[in-house]
Specification:
This protein has one domain: Arc Repressor Mutant, subunit A (Orthogonal Bundle), CATH 1.10.10.10. The chain is 55% helix and 13% strand. Strand 1 and strand 2 form a beta hairpin. 20% of the residues are buried.
Length: 112
């Protein structure tokens, strides 16, 4: 079996689902990305990504209760799985290892 890799947007959505916990649903994820990163994202792109991450086993979902504010419609709530957490951890470790390889700059020579 080939090792799964995540794209930048998949990693972002997976991370935000982990942050939001039981409040992770489409519109909340869009709002969180905008608030934390100042980045505008399309709700449809978030939904496609959520379903792709669920297909990969990094997320699971369930239907929340219906609310009057949503016209009686139910929210699909996403939660991160252990495989999703492991993927985020592996990606973080790989990035930290790469950052450690960047040669140190001599800041004194830059400033003067």
């Amino acid at each position: 079996m080939a090792k799964e890799y995540l794209g930048e947007f998949e990693e972002l959505v997976l991370t935000i689902v982990g942050i939001l916990g039981e409040e992770a649903y489409g519109n909340a994820i869009v709002a969180e990305i905008k608030e934390r990163l100042g980045r505008e994202v399309n709700l449809s792109a978030v939904h496609v990504t959520l379903y792709r991450l669920e297909d990969k086993g990094f997320l699971k979902s369930r239907m929340g209760g219906a609310t009057n504010a949503r016209g009686g419609r139910r929210k699909r709530i996403f939660t991160i799985t252990n495989a999703g957490l492991a993927m985020l951890k592996a990606m973080k470790e790989a990035r930290v290892d790469l950052w450690k390889l960047i040669p140190r700059l001599n800041y004194d020579s830059i400033l003067y």
